[in-house]
């Protein structure tokens, strides 16, 4: 949760991963084995409910913004925060997140974070309020891009989310035949904060 100019922002990550916590294959593409209708529909509804979608340049370029959603695209080639015809653009090394949100989504609300890896890493460090993790238990992509860079060093995505202060809801099976399940990880509320 972040407050900017009196407006509150909640950060919700969204990823679909293989059993070994990969979001893309060795070529950097999302394989067909990680594309599922049940997850796609859930994901699209979550994007519709957000005030802005924050994603990396490659994902932005690979997924045309057909619905005209409000996007904030990360790139190191931007000098700070910039409005372009296709989206808001932001370089985190050149401007704080608060500045980017203040112009891209001044009303506050849910911020959807669909990656890729470096974007997931950035918000893992900043703090997710929720992380919606869909896992295809039948799929292994040993040489693929992990959801978080630290997965390459051994910890699972679950362990990293737990270490960041999130706790899992009960797993929901989205597609039993594909062994596709969704776990929503949520930030534990401090004991003093009302539910
Ligand atoms: N399975 C899933 O849930 C999932 C989720 C997301 C993506 N994917 C897939 O993963 C692949 C692409 O993901 P990706 O991780 O390779 O690329 P990406 O995050 O979409 O884009 C990477 C680019 O974003 C910019 N960027 C990211 N973090 C930045 C930072 N902290 N500071 C400045 N710029 C930053 C950089 O652009 P510049 O080069 O311009 O500096 C970087 O080259 C695609 O195949 C996509 O479909 C899958």
Structural account:
This protein has 195 residues and is of the alpha/beta class. The chain has a single domain, classed as Dihydrofolate Reductase, subunit A. It contains 5 helices and 13 strands. Strands 1, 2, 4, 5, 6, 7, 8, 9, 11, 12 and 13 form an 11-stranded mixed β-sheet that branches. The longest helix has 12 residues. The chain is globular and about 45 Å long. The site of NADP nicotinamide-adenine-dinucleotide phosphate has 28 residues, from strand 2, strand 3, strand 4, helix 2 and helix 4.
Strands, total number: 13
- CATH class reads Alpha Beta
Q: Give the rounded overall mean pLDDT.
A: 95
Low-confidence stretches: none
Give the SSE order as H and E letters.
Answer: EEEHEHEEEHEHEEHEEE
Describe the sheet with the most strands: 11 strands, mixed
Separation of termini? 15 Å
Q: Which word captures the global form?
A: globular
């Amino acid at each position: 949760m972040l407050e900017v100019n009196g407006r509150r922002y909640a950060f919700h990550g969204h990823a679909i991963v293989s059993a070994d916590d990969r979001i893309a294959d060795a070529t950097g593409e999302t394989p067909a084995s990680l594309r599922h209708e049940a997850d796609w529909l859930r994901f699209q509804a979550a994007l519709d409910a957000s005030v802005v979608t924050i994603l990396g340049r490659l994902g932005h370029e690979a997924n045309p913004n057909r619905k005209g959603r409000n996007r904030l695209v990360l790139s190191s080639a931007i000098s700070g925060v910039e409005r372009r015809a296709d989206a808001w653009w932001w370089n985190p090394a050149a401007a704080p997140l608060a500045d980017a949100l203040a112009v891209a989504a001044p009303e506050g609300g849910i911020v959807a974070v669909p990656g890729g890896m470096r974007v997931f890493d950035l918000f893992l460090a900043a703090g997710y309020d929720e992380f919606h993790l869909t896992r295809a238990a039948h799929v292994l992509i040993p040489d693929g891009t992990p959801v978080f860079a630290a997965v390459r060093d051994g910890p699972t995505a679950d362990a990293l989310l737990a270490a960041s202060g999130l706790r899992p809801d009960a797993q929901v099976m989205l597609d039993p035949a594909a062994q596709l399940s969704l776990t929503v990880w949520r930030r534990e509320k401090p004991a003093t904060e009302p539910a």
